Amino acid sequence: MKATIKEAVEYFNCNRDAIPVFAIRKGDYAFEISGKDCLYLVVEKNGTGIFVARLTPDLMRLKELTENEQKAAREFAHKQLTSAGLL
Questions:
Q1: Whole-angstrom Cα distance, residue 6 to residue 8?
Q2: pLDDT tens track for 5-42
Q3: What is the C-alpha to C-alpha distance for residues 66 and 79, in angstroms, rounded to an integer?
Q4: CB-based contacts of 39-45 (< 8 A; 24+ apart in sequence)
Q5: φ, ψ of residue 26 in degrees (nearest 5)
Q6: CA 40 to centroid of chain Cα atoms
Q7: Which of 7, 31, 49, 77 sits at 20 to 30 Å (Cα–Cα) from 18?
Q8: What are the b/e assignments for 24-56, b being 16+ CB within 10 Å?
Q9: Entry pTM
């Protein structure tokens, strides 16, 4: 599966309350778009980058987040996507 940034953002927006969220090494957030294809919408926590990436869990060492951390990450991503004019 391939996804454009627009498609990934639409998926995030439609599934915002339930989409799985992980942290990657630098602390950025990875929102699972397609688990089967290891496709994620990545939102930089300490930057302004927003991109779609194929991240294999063993290579990227995705860190699971608590429910509260996931909720905060979803809110942060929504603000970043809105600020970037993607929502």
A1: 5
A2: 999 999 999 999 999 999 998 889 999 999 888 899 99
A3: 20
A4: 39/1, 39/3, 39/8, 41/5, 41/8, 41/9, 41/11, 41/12, 41/77, 43/73, 43/76, 43/77, 43/80, 43/81, 45/76
A5: -80, 0
A6: 6
A7: 49
A8: beeebbbbbbeeeebbbbbbebeeeebebeebe
A9: 0.90
